[in-house]
Amino acid sequence: MNARDRIPQLAARLVELRAAYYQGTPLVADAEYDAVEDELRGLIEANPELAPVPNPLEQVGGPAVLHAPVRHSRPMLSLEKATKPEQVAAFFDRFPGQSVVVMPKLDGLSLALIYEHGRLVRAVTRGDGTTGEDVTAMVRAMADGIPERLTADGRAEVRGEAVMLRSTFAAYNTAHPDKPLINPRNAAAGTLRAKDPATVAGRRLRFFAFDLATDTDSADTELDRALHTLGFTAADMRHCADAEAAQQAITEIEQQRGDLDYDLDGAVLRLADRDAFAAAGTRSSSPRGAIAFKFAAEEKTTVLADVVWDVGKTGKIAPVAWLEPVFVGGTTVTRATLANQEVIRARDIKIGDTVLVRRAGDVIPFVAGVLDASKRTGQEQEIVPPSVCPSCGQALIEQGNSRELFCTNVSCPAQTVRRLIHWASRAAADIDAIGGVWIERLAEVGILQQPSDFYHLTKEKLLEFDRIGEVSATRMIESIDASRQVGLRRALIGLAIPLASDGTAARLCRGGFRSLEEVAEAGVEGLVAVEDIGPKVAASLIEHLTRLRPELERLRAAGVSLDVRDEDLPPVVAAGAPLAGKTVVITGAINDPRTGEKVPRPVFQRLCEKAGATAASSVSANTDFLITGAGVGDAKLTKAAKLGVEVVDQNEIWQKLIDAQVV
Ligand SMILES: NC(=O)c1ccc[n+]([C@@H]2O[C@H](COP(=O)([O-])OP(=O)(O)OC[C@H]3O[C@@H](n4cnc5c(N)ncnc54)[C@H](O)[C@@H]3O)[C@@H](O)[C@H]2O)c1
Ligand SMILES: [Zn+2]
């Protein structure tokens, strides 16, 4: 199609997509929307005379269909996009000698907060950039990080992004399987659009500031200091003197992306000095003093080709989406979880649908829902949960609010394979020379049925298989031999007992149990006496360890150690322990300052414990120190500041550990 026809078509599509998006019902994922914008931009650049009037690329946001319109004192604009280092360098060249801040481009919705004589008088959405909507009441009710009063005279306008934290989003969806939110951005927009805070309980938002204008010059001209002094949490700004430093900061933000508690879709570069930013002025739809560097999309749409019900190691039967391959979150995804039948029902997902796939951070790829049901052709098929186990045929049972399905047949073949694979996994016995495919094969022919069977495999038996040669057979046997030292904690993990987590196994070791048999004999009362082990977990442990008693005996007979290992014992507190009596929370990446080597967090935690500290997993009023490594998320720091918890850099702690000869 020629540009003359294509341009108006793309322009109309943009208008349509924006309208839907700003209404809170996007029709496509952002990546697809951006592709339409990019194509249109490219065509107009090549054919400027064909630019549509009006040109949607020079307009901001969505249509102003607003209940309570408020005109902005100055437009709320988009940002010019950059994808290449050259564009970052060009930005620096435009502003020689200026300091630039690089910060995450938060994926929420922008708000303008207006303060008069130090009081919050109005909170307004961006709207079409010229006119926004008054959302003051909902912002007051639902958003954290927005002070009601400021020590600022005259008029002050703070702009920033209201986001739903990923943790809030996840907690809400767990608590409301029947009315799930599709992604944090949409959820934030929907929350502020609600008429009544009661209908959106549990959906709190957080505000991060990135812009400030005042009509007096009392505030600092440096943006982040000024925002901080006023009592705002600003977007995490890093000062960069040149393009190279900025590129480095962008890379860092992208690497941290998975560890942060909010979605971000890029990094923003902006002149650090407020006056310089204002003086740089604006283009039709973006300020000149800032650009946005885009990251790879964490959400894309693709076709749901099929749903397969997968049998897990504890017998849970979970729906797995088979997808047309899609590049999202940095990899090609072909499988994603659909969680359970309630999620499928609540999100109204059918086979053949174009679905939104989300892969953010370390979370397993997830089918978030169907964006545009009008794409349906009528050929889509209902996803029907099985009534019997796809592996053994036993009738399934349903459990819990989300009606999870379970096969309770202990000799179910699929479960057997899953359990064997789990026993061999790194967190458990770590038999790394035998992969899942071989475990499945050995289980099929009946040689492997339970963990103890690994220890009766011989090289001769393995060599009977066509595709196992001398070298791999030797490696397999060596790997099995090494795993005999598995010990109490990892053996318990390897047995995959429902409700018992890796943490449970660690707590039992620290609680003084010396062997798996001792745990099995302790009774429910004996186990709940251990800190942080509840009655349900204890009951499950006793039930399953009693059932597994003969297997424990077989493992022992095969020379497998089920005794506690030294490294899992409660730490011996060093004399003159420098952290005695302190409760600490560790966050960020930890590196040994003497070697610069990365130190896994559990290892560092153990060192702190040896120095007398008690480690906790989240910051509370009881925390003495928040120990920070590299790349710490704002959420924890903010919480620490709020609770008056002292924030201590890892290097200070390392010094104490070194001085006390703990390391
Ligand atoms: N899926 C869809 O159909 C659809 C439709 C329209 C727009 N979109 C998405 O919306 C976005 C485009 O919106 P846009 O062009 O209005 O915005 P933009 O990408 O140009 O960015 C401007 C916005 O970034 C936000 N922001 C976040 N952190 C910031 C920071 N640290 N400093 C400054 N601003 C910050 C502000 O809210 C500001 O309004 C794109 O990501 C696009 O994919 C999607
Ligand atoms: Zn089964």
Descriptive notes:
The protein is an alpha+beta fold and 663 residues long. The chain folds into five domains: 56 residues, Helix Hairpins (Orthogonal Bundle); 226 residues, D-amino Acid Aminotransferase, Chain A, domain 1 (2-Layer Sandwich); 99 residues, Nucleic acid-binding proteins (OB fold (Dihydrolipoamide Acetyltransferase, E2P), Beta Barrel); 155 residues, 5' to 3' exonuclease, C-terminal subdomain (DNA polymerase, domain 1), CATH 1.10.150; 77 residues, 3-Layer(aba) Sandwich (Rossmann fold). It is 35% helix and 21% strand. The chain is built from 24 helices and 25 strands. The strands form six sheets. Strands 13, 14, 15, 16, 17, 18 and 19 form a seven-stranded antiparallel sheet that branches. Strands 2-12-11-3-10 form a five-stranded mixed sheet. The protein has a five-stranded mixed sheet with strand order 5-4-8-9-7. Helix 3 packs across helix 8, helix 11 packs across helix 12 and helix 16 packs antiparallel against helix 17. The longest helix is centred in the first third of the chain and has 20 residues. The model has no long low-confidence stretch (mean pLDDT 92).
What is the topology?
Blueprint: H1 3-22, H2 30-46, E1 69-71, E2 80-82, H3 85-94, E3 100-106, E4 109-116, E5 119-125, E6 131-133, H4 136-142, E7 143-144, E8 155-163, H5 166-175, H6 184-193, E9 205-214, H7 223-229, E10 238-240, H8 243-256, E11 264-271, H9 274-280, E12 290-294, E13 299-311, E14 316-328, E15 331-337, H10 341-347, E16 354-358, E17 366-370, E18 397-399, E19 404-406, H11 413-423, H12 436-444, H13 451-454, H14 459-463, H15 470-482, H16 487-494, H17 502-510, H18 516-521, H19 523-528, H20 535-547, H21 549-557, E20 583-587, E21 590-591, E22 598-599, H22 601-610, E23 614-616, E24 625-628, H23 634-643, E25 646-649, H24 650-659
Parallel strand pairs: 2-12, 7-9, 20-23, 20-24, 24-25
Antiparallel strand pairs: 1-6, 3-10, 3-11, 4-5, 4-8, 8-9, 11-12, 13-14, 13-16, 14-15, 14-19, 16-17, 18-19, 21-22
Helix pairs in contact: 1-2, 3-8, 11-12, 16-17
This protein binds nicotinamide-adenine-dinucleotide and zinc ion.
The site of nicotinamide-adenine-dinucleotide has 25 residues, from helix 1, helix 2, strand 3 and strand 11.
Protein name: DNA ligase
Binding site for NAD(+): 30-34, 78-79, 126, 161, 294
Cofactor: Mg(2+); Mn(2+)
